[in-house]
Specification:
With about 190 residues, this protein is of the alpha+beta class. The protein is built from 7 helices and 7 strands. The longest helix has 17 residues.
Length: about 190
């Protein structure tokens, strides 16, 4: 009875491999990855499919052009599709906010990076950048940027951020003041 119980556990623990069922001359049954010894009776052989490639392996399978584009994006500090989370971190640093979702199709994230030149919304799925949205600022001189009023979209984002449960009361008051200043500019 024990070999029947142990077989499923053994099969789950082995990656791509063959499993040999060996019976010794004294009648004991053993399951192993190597073929049975000459004195043992080999009665069952099963082969299992190889696991899907890990993200590191998938990263290594990129074309040279894709790798080059990602390296340039890291140097220039912007996201591109196909980046891993580690590469995105190298390019953009820490995000301002992260929204997550755990769906049947996989784990997704929306990483929000607020920068001087605009806001980047980077969508990742299972640790890889799948799409990017930007709210780029119009090219202006520094004095024009200082006088520029935020868009309604930027104000709404700040309002959502001000409702975060992780904020302390002083942080929440600062956010509310900032929102009031943003609205006064319009």
């Amino acid at each position: 009875m024990k070999p029947i119980i142990l077989l499923p556990l053994l099969l789950l623990s082995l990656p791509a491999a063959a499993v040999f069922k060996c019976q010794s001359p004294d009648g004991k049954v053993a399951f192993q990855e190597t073929p049975c010894a000459n004195a043992e009776k080999q009665s069952d052989v099963r082969t299992f499919a190889a696991p899907s490639p890990s993200p590191a392996t998938a990263q290594d399978m990129r074309s040279p052009a894709d790798r080059s584009a990602i390296n340039v994006a890291i140097l220039q500090g912007h996201p591109v599709r196909g980046m891993t989370l580690k590469e995105l971190q190298s390019a953009m640093g820490a995000p301002t906010r992260i929204n997550t979702g755990d769906y049947p199709g996989g784990f997704t994230e929306q990483r929000i990076y607020e920068r001087d030149n605009g806001t980047f919304y980077v969508y990742t799925e299972s640790g890889v950048v799948r799409s990017i949205q930007t709210s780029a600022a119009i090219a202006r001189t520094p004095s024009q940027q200082a006088r520029a009023c935020p868009s309604e979209f930027d104000i709404k984002n700040e309002e959502v951020s001000a409702n975060s449960i992780s904020l302390t009361e002083p942080q929440r008051r600062d956010k509310q003041r900032k929102i009031a200043d943003m609205r006064a500019c319009r």
